[in-house]
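Issue 218. Parser rejects a valid record. Input:
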Amino acid sequence: MIKGYLKSKVQLILWVRGIILGIGVIIPGVSGGTIMVIFGMYEKMLQDLLRFHIKPYIAMGIGALVGVFAGGALLSFLFDNHPDPTYAFILGCLLMSVPLILKRTKGFTKNRWVLLITGGILSFSLLELPTLFVGGQLTVPQIFLAGFASSATMMIPGVSGSAVLIVLGLYESILEAVREFQMTTLLVFVTGAATGVFMLAKVLKTLFALYLSEILFFFTGLIIGSLKMVMPGTIGFFPLVTLGLGLALVYRFGK
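Output the parser choked on:
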């Protein structure tokens, strides 16, 4: 009986952690990898993924889905009804994520500066291709790419999967799919995410060990180049408040 109680208690803790993780990954600038580090589960989870040992994480996965749908629906509603304060909040999240990501590197070098600038130019250039990355009905390849890229980068502590969606210009579209329960879109997205996790877990682990600083500098450049996309249309009292809230939230949970 005691053994069964302990097992159910562990599953409940994993479920609650999953909800926190799901809400966290929806917020740009908050890293799913960092949340797993805070939970003390990052290394073990990565090893389990390499062995396709996912049974212990089923409860957490269910909780993460609850968190994603709850957080996604709320943010989608805010984008529709209070766009400027919401954009300001996202802007604050992304701005604060920049120094926190660079804090995890081994410092600036000439090559890393080049990677930072290259990432910024690439990201800014993508924003000039609205017919390919922004607006209209999402295509299956776009949805799959969104899931693949966001899940792969989310495995890096300090890097936000949602920020990747902003760089690709697909963040609001995915939020809308979550809010409206567009199951076909979500299924393709989840398939891409699972593919990214299982295909790249071993590769990413090796790359992170060898080139973590370089990867983080390049990704920081991508974030900086994408800031134009989340600039609020007007700056007033409430956008300034939500900007500060975004800065504070990522500072608190992104360290």
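Fixed in the parser; the record now loads. Confidence is low (pLDDT under 50) at residues 1-6, 130-135.
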